Structure formats: structure tokens, C-alpha cells
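Re: the 161-residue chain
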Amino acid sequence: MTRRNLLSSAAALFAGMLGGVPQTARADQGQHYEVSYTTEQWKQRLSPEQYYVLREQGTEYAFSSPLDTEKRVGVYECAGCALPVFSSTTKFDSGTGWPSFWAPITGAIGTTKDSSFFMVRTEVHCRRCGSHLGHVFDDGPKPTGLRYCINGVALIFVPKA
């Protein structure tokens, strides 16, 4: 078992005991985005799990998303606004239980410092609607060395026709 798998498993176990991992509110929470809805409109548009992850910066359970093992060619869109955020050409199996990518589609995401749970991470959000997608770490494969660890519930997979 690699160190990453061990840490991911421990984090998933801890998240499961807490019913998911809530994140602290982002500093840009009041920022205006191209796509913007009221809290009630977001709740009508999204499932409860999507709302928890996308709007409350939550984390889904590890290994719970079918997108973690998705192998088809296509594009992954933000579940909040349908902006294409990741391509299947940058997807890889990180073994962490969440869909992982080594690069986003250019200009599709924004990042914010997340200092919740006694650690500092980089949160990834949709640049168009501000929805929380996941986090990025510096332990990914070449060519970027980055691992965008993304909640499957935050994505919609659109297979290439």
C-alpha cells in the first residue's frame, strides 16, 4: 500500500465517521460568477448530495462515484453549470477513490487556499459558477506532477459521440 493510498483511506474513514467532510467557507464566497443562483434555486437544481459538495464544499465518500472508474473518451462538466472542466485525456487512476486528473481544461477552474482540518490544501472550484469540485495536490503524474482529486458528484460525464 502506498503512502497516498494509506492517507486517502484514513481520510475516507474519517470522512465516513463524520458523514462527509465539510470544508470551511471559501474567501471568495461573495464573489460574483457568470452563473449565479439563490440558495433555494441551487437546492432545486441539484440533488442533496450535489448541493452538499458543490455549494457547501463537502466531500463525497471515497469509492462511491462510478466516475472514478469511467474509462470512455469524453468530457467532464461541472454539475452546477455544465462548463467543461476536465477531459478524459488527462484522467488517471490515482487509487484514492475519487476521479483524478493531471490537468483541467484551460481556463475552466479557479483555486482557493483551504486551511480546514489542520492542514493547508488548494481547493478547486468552477470558474463560471464557483461550485466546489475538489482539491489539487502536487503528487500527480507527469507531465504536470499534479493530481486534481475531484468529487464525482460534482461532475457530469459527457461521452464523445
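The beta strands are 74-78, 84-87, 91-92, 100-101, 109-114, 121-126, 132-137, 147-150, 155-159.
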